[in-house]
Automatic annotation (TrEMBL):
This is DNA mismatch repair protein MutL. The keyword DNA repair applies. GO terms for molecular function: ATP binding; ATP hydrolysis activity; ATP-dependent DNA damage sensor activity; mismatched DNA binding. It comes from Rhodanobacter lindaniclasticus. Belongs to the DNA mismatch repair MutL/HexB family. This protein is involved in the repair of mismatches in DNA. It is required for dam-dependent methyl-directed DNA mismatch repair. May act as a 'molecular matchmaker', a protein that promotes the formation of a stable complex between two or more DNA-binding proteins in an ATP-dependent manner without itself being part of a final effector complex. The lineage of its organism: Bacteria, Pseudomonadati, Pseudomonadota, Gammaproteobacteria, Lysobacterales.
Length: 342
């Protein structure tokens, strides 16, 4: 047996990357979430070769000060939490301070940023974990991150990347879910230089519903009911599809907890139960639902990719969801769907 050794930092980051960075869309998720946390109102995502060649995310958010640039790509360095107490109340999408360190350890990475107070922008580059000194650059206030040749130094991972089309489809799906999460933010997505999607900032409910229709289909607004209910510190809003909007696959289910798309057992069970007597066996409901609650009531530090959450009061959340949705759907059972959303 060899002696015990401490691992070099690049290797530690590459191991961490294995947990969160599964494919190009995982990189896009981390970068866009950073832009959202930075208060961006406009986020542009440019992809080349399904993300294998290039992923670029550009935002007009708060930017990163020159002195902080090396920290942005250091592991366990974050501006979002500073204590265990903060972790219990975390309202930002990120908090682990690991995404940029991970991504930059498995790609050719560059970040250009400028804060509102700075005259000039600065650029740093990281190549396979090695950080180069910051240089002045051109950039409006905000941040651009460029990730080239993802997994170029991790052949085992690279092998798992699928066809360009498949990887881009994952990115497109992710952008759809993010566009529904933050309808006040403008999103643009391009692939190989061609614009694929433009979601302008939605200023009113009609515009939000247009986004919903783009993601769930043009008929969804007519085949859904608006839900809005608050009780016991929980607030649920959104649209639940009528049985006529149901699908053979569970591919139109968007459930957000404090703005974060989650796949949760408790939520899934409550929704399934609420739909139980209006849907045929084998059919899946379509919905876009937003649950808001005190961040202290939900633990997001369950999985590195944060798809899962743990509610402190699971029973309460379950019953609130079930009752709210069951009641909304009761109208369809009585055959008196008077006012579908439009
Ligand atoms: P986390 O998001 O968990 O803090 P990241 O590795 O994703 O960790 O980012 C590290 C830090 O870099 C963030 O805490 C933030 O201060 C800064 N940062 C990253 N991306 C951006 C961005 N687009 N705009 C402004 N600051 C950013
Ligand atoms: Mg982050």
């Amino acid at each position: 047996m060899a002696n015990i050794r401490a691992l070099p930092p690049e290797l530690i980051n590459q191991i961490a990357a294995g947990e969160v960075i599964e494919r190009p869309s995982s990189v896009v998720k981390e970068l866009v979430e950073n832009s959202l946390d930075a208060g961006a109102t406009r986020i542009e995502v440019d992809i080349e070769a399904g993300g294998a060649r290039l992923i670029r995310v550009r935002d007009d958010g708060g930017g990163i000060a020159l002195d902080d640039l090396p920290l942005a790509v250091a592991s366990h360095a974050t501006s979002k939490i500073g204590s265990f107490d903060d972790l219990e109340h975390v309202a930002s999408m990120g908090f682990r301070g690991e995404a940029l360190a991970s991504v930059s350890s498995v790609s050719r990475f560059a970040l250009v940023s400028r804060t509102a107070g700075q005259e000039a922008a600065f650029r740093i580059e990281v190549d396979g974990g090695r950080l180069q000194a910051a240089r002045p650059a051109q950039h409006p206030p905000g941040t651009s991150v460029e990730v080239r040749d993802l997994f170029y130094n991790v052949p085992a991972r690279k092998k798992f990347m699928r066809a360009e089309r498949t990887e881009f489809a994952h990115i497109d799906d992710l952008l759809k879910s993010l566009s529904l999460a933050r309808s006040s933010v403008e999103f643009r997505l391009s692939h190989n230089g061609k614009p694929v999607r433009v979601w302008k900032a939605a200023r009113d409910e009609q515009a939000v519903l247009q986004r919903v229709a783009e993601v769930l289909g043009a008929e969804f607004p007519q085949r859904s009911l608006r839900v809005e209910h608050a009780a016991a510190g929980l607030q649920l809003s959104g649209w639940v599809g009528l049985p006529t909007a149901s699908r053979a696959q569970a591919d139109a289910q968007y459930f957000y907890v404090n703005g974060r798309l989650v796949r949760d057992r408790i939520v899934a069970h409550a929704v399934r139960q609420a739909y139980a007597d209006v849907l045929f066996h084998g059919r899946h409901a379509a919905f876009v639902l937003y649950l808001e609650l005190d961040p202290a009531g939900v633990d997001v530090n369950v999985h590195p990719a944060k798809h899962e959450v743990r509610f402190r009061e699971q029973r309460l959340v379950h019953d609130f969801l079930f009752r709210t949705l069951h009641e909304a759907l009761a109208q369809t059972r009585a055959g008196q769907v008077a006012s579908p959303a439009h």
